[in-house]
Amino acid sequence: MKSDLHTLSDLNDIFKCADDTTVLVPENTNVDLADEFAHVKVWASINRLILNFDKTKEIVFRRPRAQDFHMPPMIDDTEQLNYCKLLGGHFPA
Q: Which helix (H) or strand (E) holds 28?
């Protein structure tokens, strides 16, 4: 069923594994994360699926010593994390 879920931009990427979906949106994209997330929500609604917003998290990766880094606003009140666990691996922001 997930085979018809694609990103709005070719610069963004979606990784799917079982019932988990990860959306990767780089800084230099032409479609931002909020728009991609809205697209996923519409897709889920069309396919009569329910997103688990309690498990929906956002992580912003950055260079360790970035001088002019500004944290983007959260999308739809999702929790922003400093690390994430993805397929058993831990990734620091």
A: none
